[in-house]
Amino acid sequence: MTLTGQLLIGSRTVTGNGEIIHAINPATNTPLAPDYPGGDASHVDQACALASAAFDSFREIAPAERALFLECIANEIEALGDQLIERAVAESGLPLARIQGERGRTCQQLRLFATVLRKGEWLDVRIDPALPQRQPMPRSDLRQRQVPLGPVVVFGASNFPLAFSVAGGDTASAFAAGCPVIVKAHSAHPGTSELVGHAIARAVKNCGLPEGVFSLLYGSGREVGTALVSDPRIKAVGFTGSRSGGLALSKAAQARRDPIPVYAEMSSINPVLLFPSALQTRAEALAQGFVTSLTQGAGQFCTNPGLIIAQQGPDLERFISSAGELIKRIPTQTMLTPGIFHAYQHGVSQLKANPKAQLIAAGLSSEAPNQCQAHLFSTSAEDFLRDENLQAEVFGSASLLVQCRDAEEVRKVCEHLEGQLTATLHLDADDLPLAQTLLPTLERKAGRLLVNGWPTGVEVCEAMVHGGPFPATSDVRSTSVGTAAIQRFLRPVCYQDFPDDLLPTALRHDNPMHLRRLLDGQREA
Ligand code: NAP
């Protein structure tokens, strides 16, 4: 397919007339053709009008048909072949194998939501049949199901140009729920976005769905993104990116006449606790695991281990020395964009200039453009508790070790943490009593707790939680990875005393969809 740089508004391709976006190959700092002129207010209006018009029919098609649509998108993405892989590599600087893996994850995610749709449990049907003889008051017939919120705006993430972008997790879960989607493409990978956008548009057409089910707009987040979030026809937002971007869009959503939910995944430093016995038995292995996790993908993961917490002593010294030696040998890696590289450089220079942080080790350096040099710093618990700047996310392969005098300081540091996507515990049997005392704090702080693993690598499955208290996300009640993500785009509606013919199919008396309903308080077999 020839890239055109055009917006996709329903089934139409349109040349934008806003500020031009150029993709840049971060490995060489060279621009990539074509130009991507951004959209304007009229494009936002057209996309929202089409999405709104498509909503009522898209949401009521049989779940099995929406499942076919998701599978069709996956097939169309695979059919893009090497062109998609090559463009995503050029626009992101990520290695070929990583992008190939990410394409697999993207398609698997879409197909997983297709199985969710076919099972029907997402409808969460609850029925309390009428009790006309009940005293002192009869009970009406009450039936509940989940319905989609309405058109959703998705902001593609820079660090997952496939799995968290145009056809990524937010789009897959919104489509599964029955919501039309308008994507504001990330300006770092417009060509990848165009290819995937056309794959979705083909799936819309092949499945005979209304064209407004999907649109793709380029343009500045402050203009096009804010206009989309402020449009009254939009009913929810999915976002992954910076804390400032997520907060600005949440503010725009709250300023509407009808505020809407914004599911923004923003900032997390993912504390890793090294317990005394685990350090004693395997300090060197822990250092190896930590450095691998820290430096994978130039540290550009929301679950990157940016904070290590441990008690001082000879075993921690072994960990420090081992991790330091390993980091010194780590080559640089290309970062996603010049902007992300500069933000990383700034974050590292802030730590270097902070008298409360000491540099343990830095990786190899390079003169090539946009290179991430790994860094490990150390501070005391006392200083960490005093200086909020030490909790700031440095997006990339940088981490801070917080050295505690005793278990009480470990507890204080954990209590002081902001909300996190993950918290990791490295422990042995002897560490269990201490871990037990910290669990209530960690459960309040993080969405996923791990034992003896590393937080990078997020499984797409039923039980996953990729969320957490602010600033990890703007809405602590949900996950953006895994099948539970569908719930973000649904809301319950109750039907009271409806004649059977007027009820939605899922709620009819003879249960034509064979759902496992909650009938009079009992789950059906
Ligand atoms: P970003 O700057 O937040 O951009 C993400 C999206 O939000 C883009 O489409 C952007 O539009 C839009 N946007 C940004 N600020 C906005 C605002 N004030 N109002 C409206 N829309 C806005 O994120 P990024 O470019 O991916 O990376 C920048 C930094 O974000 C990184 O250095 C890192 O600190 C953080 N980040 C964190 C994670 C994580 O998972 N925790 C992931 C990625 C990035 P434009 O196209 O105009 O830029």
> Helix segment count?
14
Unreliable spans are none
Q: How many strands?
A: 23
Biggest sheet character: 7 strands, mixed
* Mean pLDDT, all residues: 98
Strand content: 15-25%
Assembly classification: single chain
CA radius of gyration is: 25 Å
Bound molecules: NADP nicotinamide-adenine-dinucleotide phosphate
Q: Which structural category do the helix and sheet elements fall into?
A: alpha/beta
Shape: globular
Q: Termini separation (Å)? A: 49 Å
Strand order of the largest sheet: 15-17-18-13-12-19-20
Residues in helices, as a percent range:
25-40%
Organism: Ectopseudomonas mendocina
Pfam families: Aldedh
Protein name: Aldehyde dehydrogenase (NADP(+))
Keywords: Oxidoreductase
Summarize the structure.
This protein is an alpha/beta fold and 525 residues long.
3D architecture notes:
By secondary structure, the chain is of the alpha/beta class. It is 38% helix and 20% strand. The protein has helices spanning 41-60, 63-79, 82-92, 96-119, 169-177, 190-206, 221-230, 243-254, 276-295, 314-328, 338-353, 381-386, 407-416, 432-445; strands at residues 7-9, 12-14, 20-25, 30-37, 126-128, 142-148, 152-155, 181-184, 214-217, 236-240, 262-265, 271-274, 307-311, 333-334, 358-362, 371-372, 375-380, 398-404, 420-426, 446-451, 490-496, 518-519, 522-523. It has a seven-stranded mixed β-sheet, sandwiched between helices. It has a five-stranded mixed β-sheet with strand order 21-6-5-22-23, with no helix packed on it. A five-stranded parallel β-sheet has the order 9-8-7-10-11, with helices on both faces. Helix 9 (276-295) packs parallel to helix 10. The protein is globular and about 75 Å long. The two termini are 49 Å apart. The structure holds NADP nicotinamide-adenine-dinucleotide phosphate. NADP nicotinamide-adenine-dinucleotide phosphate binds at residues 155, 157-159, 184, 186-187, 220-222, 225-226, 240-242, 244-245, 248-249, 265-268, 302, 339-340, 343, 393, 395.
